[in-house]
Amino acid sequence: MGFIAVLACTLAFSLVFKDAIRKAPGAFYCLALLASVLYAATSFVSLPLSLQMLLFQLMQKGTLATALFVVVMYMGVFRDVRFVRQRLLPTRATLSIVACILALGHVAKYAVSFAPALASLAPSVAWGLALGAVAFALMAILGVTSFQAVKRRMGTQAWTALQRWAYLFYALLFAHIALFLAPASIQSPLGASGERLIAYTAVFGIYALLRTGKAIYDLLLGRARHVRRSQIAATTEPDDQASATAR
Q1: Which end of the chain is more exposed for a tag (fewer CB within 10 A), N or C?
Q2: What are the residue boundaries of the Ferric oxidoreductase domain, all occurrences included (predicted)?
Q3: pTM score, whole prediction
Q4: What single DSSP character describes residue 115?
């Protein structure tokens, strides 16, 4: 199953089960943890073939976790859209935590696979692993602070400042994926790796453009509101002075 198909299914699942996700986040955390444990366990035990294939498709390359992160990313861009604000935004923190838990299985399996061969890895793969390690550390911090109890203890200002590091995480995540896919994509641009790289580049590239555009729009809107408030204050001040003089 390709990334775009998994992404579409993930978005549909998030919409259909939005109420359940909001009311019982713990159940989804447990399901994600079970999936991660089962996937990591495939290195040591045999599971039913159908289950192994499903886990391989969704977990082996972090496809499901990445799809969830993409849904969370785009929620931030469209948070002012009424449909997103009402239907999806209340589940954003939960989906982010679920994505982090799912990523644990992917990281554990790859750590076991690549640890014995670190010295002989191709440069792009080595860089991909290095960036992936940094992204994982950042993901762990962002994931833990997504829990409401931690958020309340941190305070709104500190939490908001920390969450801005999510943009670096998204960039590192894409770089990690691209570096792993690049060698095979160069050899066969129209092969499976090439198609996946195009899909990831399109999804993350469109997000970068939309998020940059939103940031510029918010900046200009903020300045326009500031100018408007200044104009209103300048207009009402003479009236206030005239009223005081009349009294």
Answers
A1: C
A2: 62-173
A3: 0.86
A4: G
